[in-house]
Amino acid sequence: MSDPTSNRTVAIVGRPNVGKSALFNRLAEKRISIVHDEPGVTRDRITATCNITSPPFTLIDTGGIGSNPDDSFSSIIKQEVDIALEAADLILFVVDGNEGQTPVDQEIVSHLRKSEKNIFLVVNKIDEEKKIGLIDDFSSMGFKDIYSTSAAHNIGIKELAHKVSSSLPEQVEFEDKNNLKLNIALVGRPNVGKSSIINALLQDTRTIVSDIAGTTRDAIDVPFSHGGIDYTLIDTAGLRSRNKQNTSVEVFSGMRTKTSIKRADICVLVVDAAQGPTSQDRKIANLINKSNTPCLIVANKFDLYHPTAPKTERLEAINEDIDEQLFFLPYAPIVATSAKTGESIRRLFFGIEQIRKSSSQMLNTGSLNRLLQNCLIAHPPPAGKGGKRFKLLYATMSKESAPQKAIPEANFILFCNKKSLLPNNYERYLENKIREQSPYTGIPIRFIFRERESRRSR
Fold first, then answer.
1. Whether the predicted pLDDT of 184 surpasses 80
2. 125: left (phi over 0), alpha (psi -120 to 50) or beta
3. Which among 1, 122, 338, 388 has the fewest CB atoms less than 10 Å away?
4. Would the pTM count as exceeding 0.85?
5. Nearest to 359 by CA among 430, 412, 294, 414
6. Do the bridges between strand 146-148 and strand 410-416 make them parallel or antiparallel, or are there none, so unpaired?
7. How would DSSP label each residue in 45-101?
8. E strands along 240-281, which residues?
9. Nearest to 233 by CA among 185, 191, 187, 265
10. What gap in Å lies between CA 300 and CA 363, rounded to an integer?
């Protein structure tokens, strides 16, 4: 993928709870990584751009090495850090100034020295003048570049950013700047295979995959290029039902997932084909529907869905099952895949391309008005109080869309006498008639009503 900062990459490493994610957020100038007192919250590599300096550079936040309370992840997190170190031009090794050197810090130092990379020692949590002396405790580590910061209080951040930037290679310009860019958020319940799908697409272990539900705690942006389109794949934390979110980290993760849905150009709702859609899947689908974000449904683990039956029958059955359970997303195309076996994994891009091409359809004003007026004549809306009926005066398709969205919205402005005279089921009837003429695959249709002023108000 074309990335102007790809040759200027900085990895932030250190043991858990020394402030790596807080430092990452300060350098990125926005809250991306979840910051929490619970050790081991960050488990995956998370990337962002530091624009404090010119030229900018890429940041990689990593899971904490060592002393992780969750032993089942320690070796995987170490592997994640190794991958980050391999990709980085410079390493920020973060320690806790208040706690001083620890055996784990010393173990990390010996691990880092093997990388033969440029390493800056960042003594974090130095938020008062009297704490400056605490830096001396780390001089025995033998680092030439030692910097003091307080990520929590934004102290020493800009100075550190400029020192880092001046120590990185010169920026290299890349071609292909006009590529279309799409943000694709993978959302769903825990353990349905969101991270596995991204790894299968990348043919890489970019995100941590485990059969322990809740492995991904943060929303992780993964740059990726395919077919001349630059994608940002957003791997989100699995959304549990509210009464099962037993830690504040899970609550924060859920909030971050909801934010990812809003900033996505397309949401990929991943469901477990073997289990079938659940009530929690319906709640997540409803979140996507309310956000007015285009949607693609992926039935993952399809290799476990009636594996002995013929494939055509299995596809028909899973489509019927999803249509029945997620009936309020009838416009979302369905792709059946298996991230584990790689079956039909590239069909995700076919589904995304369907949505992208469909978004460029425009119903001209004349055709739209004829279509809607014919609907009103064939099946008039029911009369309200006093025998009054909904009257459509004029309709047009809105040409305005959210400026940050690459997929244009399908919003129709209806000038009418009174919106309250139109029942919800009649709105769905009008939507279905529009889709018969222009399917708008994967794209929600929204009606915006403009009521005629009454004579009295005029």
1. yes
2. left
3. 388
4. no
5. 294
6. unpaired
7. -EEEEE-SSSS-EEEEE-PPPS--S-HHHHHHHHHHHHHHHHH-SEEEEEEETTT--
8. 266-272
9. 185
10. 34
